[in-house]
């Protein structure tokens, strides 16, 4: 099949969260399965852009309301990611250092989508499916169907994958002038809650919808930031397909980011050596169990619970534990986590920001991973942790519920029900009790590492869905 993915992120080109990891892995594994796969994304000013060779694939022009602009689509020459990678360059609009967070993000991503549609329109043979990811590409199914300038694309099947329904790209109706000319009778297909909602538009107009885990698909029908009725109405075209992880990138046997490589046979020794490096770098006590949190410091991840939960756990466990936090987000949460460094020096540290190498080392060296998320569509961190023999402590929500089984149910993780201090601290106590039983803990580590969460198990489900649309 000829498959085109459209995304705002793609690891290792530009990554903010799980969307980037999925967009960097799913196309690669589809290509490995014999399909012709392309991905197109905005051209940001990144290290990847500067360090690789590019060729011009297409030059064009378009309108964003009254704003006329030129754009260029470039292609990475060697297909080093395992699939064909294309970037859209709009001078002054997309070529910035960050992916998101600008006041004109709405214009940026609408312009990006118009460029993609313009590029696609001149293909001699259209793709078998266009796979859109999140709200940044959610207007394309509508553009294909109802915008006059793109009638050639109206029969191209579209799939929209929702990685996180909390972010929807809301815009007031005065912004509709940025869209290509469309059939005004279809304006309702852009709207939800009396404003333009790109995610809702994608849900309404895409031929099929997927989410990144079966449980999240069910949760969206009663908790989707205002779209609950829409998901209920469109449930007939919804499919929950669990994300995988890239076992080539996340492989403790070959990972160049970690201090000591290991497998399920050498896991105890290998993790200990990585833990020694972590503890030395961050001033932690190697003798105690090491709990880590890796991710965005926002309410969605229940990061606001961490400061008080960590303080309570320290005192209730006689300070015989270590905590290491890697992340950034809400300033108040960052300040509270930073303040703990003085209070619990020698057993706690906080790295404010994101560091890909450090994240790998933390998965390899930690004993336990904390994921108390309020919302977790799929979650990749718990799968990375399992791959590295690190036991996840997770709230039973979304994809965490689909991927982690409690040790009390003959599983390999620790699960709890509420994103609050008591549940998180109780889980830490359970974890310490397991840690102290060295032989049992070692057997859990081997069990975790044998779990296969690779994309190989998932790719076929997407291909089957694509084939149903053709």
Q: Any key phrases for this structure?
A:
single chain; 470 residues; alpha/beta; Rossmann fold; 2 domains; six-stranded parallel β-sheet; globular; transferase; Glycogen synthase; glycosyltransferase
CATH topology group of the largest domain: Rossmann fold
In terms of per-residue confidence, which ranges show pLDDT below 50 for 5 or more consecutive residues?
A: none
Question: Overall 3D geometry?
Answer: globular
Cα distance spanning the termini: 10 Å
CATH class of the largest domain: Alpha Beta
What Rg do the Cα atoms give?
Answer: 23 Å
Pairing-aware structural class of the strands and helices? alpha/beta
Mean pLDDT: 96
Instruction: State which percent range the strand residues make up.
Output: 15-25%
Helix content: 25-40%
Quick one: CATH superfamily of the largest domain?
Glycogen Phosphorylase B
| Count, helices | 16
Major beta sheet, strand line-up: 3-4-5-2-1-6-7-10-11
Total individual domains: 2
CATH architecture descriptor text of the largest domain: 3-Layer(aba) Sandwich
**Strand count, sense and closure of the main sheet?**
9 strands, mixed
How many strand units? 17
What's the structural blueprint in terms of helices and strands?
Layout: E1 2-6, H1 18-32, E2 36-42, H2 47-51, E3 54-64, E4 67-76, E5 84-89, H3 105-121, E6 129-133, H4 140-146, E7 158-162, E8 191-192, E9 195-196, H5 198-205, E10 208-211, H6 214-219, H7 228-233, E11 238-240, H8 267-282, E12 290-294, H9 306-316, E13 322-327, H10 331-343, E14 348-352, H11 356-365, E15 368-371, H12 381-387, E16 391-395, H13 398-403, E17 414-416, H14 421-435, H15 438-449, H16 459-469
Parallel strand pairs: 1-2, 1-6, 2-5, 6-7, 7-10, 10-11, 12-13, 12-15, 13-14, 15-16, 16-17
Antiparallel strand pairs: 3-4, 4-5, 8-9
Helix pairs in contact: 4-5, 8-11, 9-14
């Amino acid at each position: 099949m000829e498959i085109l993915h459209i995304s705002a992120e793609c690891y290792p080109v530009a990554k903010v969260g799980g969307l980037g990891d999925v967009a960097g892995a799913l196309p690669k594994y589809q290509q490995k399965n014999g399909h012709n796969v392309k991905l197109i994304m905005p051209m940001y000013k990144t290290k990847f852009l500067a360090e690789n060779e590019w060729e011009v694939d297409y030059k064009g022009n378009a309108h964003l309301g009254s704003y006329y602009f030129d754009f260029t689509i470039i292609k990475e020459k060697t297909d080093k990611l395992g699939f064909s990678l294309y970037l859209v360059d709009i001078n002054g609009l997309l070529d910035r250092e960050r992916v998101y967070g600008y006041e004109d993000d709405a214009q940026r991503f609408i312009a990006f989508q118009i460029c993609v549609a313009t590029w696609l329109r001149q293909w001699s043979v259209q793709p078998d499916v266009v796979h859109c990811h999140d709200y940044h590409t959610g207007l394309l199914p509508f553009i294909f169907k109802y915008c006059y300038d793109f009638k050639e694309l109206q029969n191209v099947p579209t799939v929209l994958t929702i990685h996180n329904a909390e972010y929807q790209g809301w815009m007031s109706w005065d912004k509709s002038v940025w869209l290509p000319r469309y059939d005004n009778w279809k304006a309702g297909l852009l709207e939800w809650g009396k404003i333009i909602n790109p995610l809702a538009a994608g849900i309404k107009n895409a031929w099929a919808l997927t989410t990144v885990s079966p449980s999240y698909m069910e949760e969206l029908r009663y908790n989707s930031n205002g779209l609950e009725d829409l998901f209920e109405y469109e449930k007939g075209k919804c499919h929950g397909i669990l994300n995988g992880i890239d076992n080539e990138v996340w492989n403790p046997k070959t990972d160049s980011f970690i201090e000591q490589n290991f497998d399920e046979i050498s896991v105890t020794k290998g993790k200990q050596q990585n833990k020694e490096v972590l503890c030395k770098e961050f001033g932690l006590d190697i003798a105690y169990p090491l709990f880590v949190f890796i991710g965005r410091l926002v309410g969605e991840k229940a990061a606001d619970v961490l400061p008080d939960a960590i303080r309570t756990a320290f005192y209730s466990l006689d300070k015989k534990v270590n905590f290491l936090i890697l992340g950034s987000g809400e300033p108040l949460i960052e300040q509270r986590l930073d303040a703990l460094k003085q209070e619990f020096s020698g057993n706690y540290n906080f790295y404010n920001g994101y560091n890909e190498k450090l994240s790998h080392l933390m998965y390899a060296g930690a004993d336990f991973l904390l994921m108390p998320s309020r919302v977790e569509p799929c979650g990749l961190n718990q799968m990375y942790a399992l791959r590295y023999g690190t036991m996840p402590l997770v709230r039973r929500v979304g994809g965490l519920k689909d991927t982690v089984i409690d040790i009390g149910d003959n599983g390999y993780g620790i699960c709890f029900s509420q994103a609050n201090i008591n549940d998180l601290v109780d889980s830490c106590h359970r974890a310490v009790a397991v840690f102290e039983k060295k032989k049992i803990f070692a057997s859990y580590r081997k069990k975790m590492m044998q779990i296969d969460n690779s994309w190989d198990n998932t790719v076929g489900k997407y291909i089957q869905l694509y084939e149903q649309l053709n």
